[in-house]
Amino acid sequence: MKYVDEFRDSGSARRLVEDIRRTATRRWVLMEVCGGQTHSLLRHGIEEELRDTVELIHGPGCPVCVTPADDIDFAQQLALRDGVTLASFGDMLRVPGSRRSLLDVRADGGRVRIVYSPLDAVALAQKNPDQHVVFFAVGFETTAPATALAALQARELGLHNFSLLVSHVRVQPAMEALMISPGNCVQGFLAAGHVCTITGFDSYREFVERFGVPVAVTGFEPIDLLEGIRDCVQQLEAGHAMVTNQYERSVRRDGNEYAQNAVNRVYEIEDCPWRGFGVIPQGGYRLRTEFEQFDARARFLFNAGSVVASNERNDCPAADVLAGRLRPNECPHFGIHCTPDSPLGAPMVSSEGACAAYFRYRTVTPESVSPEEAAT
Amino acid sequence: MTVPAWQLNCPVEFDESSDRITLAHGEGARLTRRLIDEQICPRFSSLPLGALPDAAHLNTTGRRIAVTTDSFVVSPLFFPGGDIGSLAVHGTVNDLAVSGAVPKWITLSLILEEGLPIPILSRVLDSVARAAAECCVEVVAGDTKVVPRGAADGMFLNTTGIGELIDPVPPGPQAIEPGDVVLISGPIGRHGIAVLCAREELAFDPPPESDAASLIDVVAMLRDSAGTKLRAVRDATRGGVSAVLHEWAAACGHSFQLTESQLPVSRDVRGASELLGLDPLHIACEGVLVAAIAPEASEAAVAGLRSLPMSTHAASVGTAGTSQLSSVTIQRTLGQRQPVDEPTGALLPRIC
Amino acid sequence: MCLGVPGQVVEWLDRDPVFGRASIEFDGVRRVCHMACVPDAEIGEFVVVHAGIAISRIDADAAERLLDELRQFDIDDDGLVPTDPLTDAETRL
Fold first, then answer.
1. Which CATH number fits domain A68-168+256-298: 3.10.180.10, 3.40.50.11740, 3.40.50.720, 3.40.50.10800?
2. Is B328 helix (H, G, I), strand (E, B) or coil?
3. Which residues in C lie closer than 8 A to residue B208 (C-beta atoms)?
4. Do B334 and A222 touch (CB under 8 A)?
């Protein structure tokens, strides 16, 4: 696949790894924010390969993990309402709200429909005038333009049976919250390449000035990730703290103007709770009042009283994992009580959560084989 | 009104006034007999017209027999590359073939949903008849039940397949030894992607096609080329290649090490799985076999398979080894070995 | 979630600013994607698609520059000499 395969070339990857090792005179601590990057780092063995040179902390970039349990509960209630179909991205289906997941609700007769795109949900509403279609709008700034476009299309089509349950989150405010939290040891960031494709990276200038840490806008393929890591290491070795773009083929400094316009027309920024983190100032979006007819929160009432007390295990340290204070394999439950089949919290349920990625892509190296196994 | 899932891609034009299956068709009386006479017997010449016996009498050649049973609940009923009818035949004969048998006879049980238009039933039965003829198997017995609206999503099929074993029969996964080579006969994941795209109306163009087909000839070639060096062979269905290898690992106590760059994956499955975030190793096939062969016979086996149109992309993709941390591992970009988990399947239901 | 996949623009179907759509090819399969955020994308260009919409036009020159830099590894005996990050940052911002 063009623009994918070339950036997975193992020869180039190995050489970049060597270059990073040669450049570093000490071990540095970097954070990548986006779940897709975590996934890729683990899947392609990069974290393992660089473990002596760079400590990679996996940040809260899994929108599925940070969607508030209340919002998932609301989505479930909507799915169970007569005449309502809840349309959602596939990866939201297995995440538990306070108690159960959308998949459980579907098994109970709830109308839950997986769609690949919010625009497919608009088409669904058009084709089914007797159903009210609610699209569960989760995701970062990468996804907000698509849901904004859905609202704009629905308005032009004059649809009365379409709305959005908005639970979008914004990355940079979360990065700021992390940097000021006690115990933070992050020395550099791999900024989320597709978020920056939309927003641009000018806003990180202030960030690097304020916190004195380098930020490398980074893509998702192994070569892209290694380029981002290499840039951060080079900057740290030289004592610099700047924003650089290591994903030039997709990211421009000002981002995507059309996408930003769509988002600004439809949404405004608000303070927003992140699951496991509490409220992050300016951490999310809400629909503007002129789009109220497409706001599921305005059209339907969330029955908070009917929600059973949370099943959320208090001993799932999701917040610490998402903030990078705890590595998944350092959690006492990891792999023992907590696995993708029987998860205790969101980072293990979501396919992009740090815990699930660790579980799925843990490496099999000679060191990790016990003496008994090695003897067989 | 939403089109019922089983009607997606239905190649049959029928109007709303077509005759439909009713509960009466399942009661074993006049309407059932009429359904059998009009729809079933004319397509399957081995079934005597008029009064069907309670059991078929079969003349075997004296060899040991193999028996398999399968149910088919795929949704939608029609998908690019096949339908529930052809799938039922291919799935059944493939199970027999990989067990070392020549498929000879099939039974066909129909569980029909009340309201199913009869032209759709006809179309599915045509497909069964065609596939059975191609595979040289006879449909010798069957049953028809009707369930209320909503209880069967169009129709479910159940088959029993009977075949005659031809020696030497591959010993099975418990015979796999460290060093044995893992072969795959063709590109993986095609059936699952085809059905998922059809069902979720993912609107890919061209719509990915299922690989559902008979593996009888492919198995025969494999057995000829590898002889007694063939340890085990399975068709990779639900759960894909990963499911087969995990089962084998449990049976033989060894592990399997795959190399990602050697896995045959067609372009459209690659494109669709990248877009959907899926791993082809976990996706169902219906025309691909996985084999474990002693290393000295693997090259000849691959060469033999590649000479057949259905397995031109056959490849050796890994080896069996001594037990490691995980039953199935794969080598990816930077040469790190990673576990391949067992598939969970929640997002790919009703594939078969 | 931020899964963005590169595909090639094959055919424009609608150039409306809100409903604009094009057929995009991803290694053997084509899908109709929404193009409101890349209204100037040309046939033959590659775009990154996320959740059914194209979010950027791939800069082929930038991609080529990076790949060239990697090919230099083969040419330089002792590997690529790390570039001065200060200079790089100035030109990149």
1. 3.40.50.11740
2. strand
3. 29
4. yes
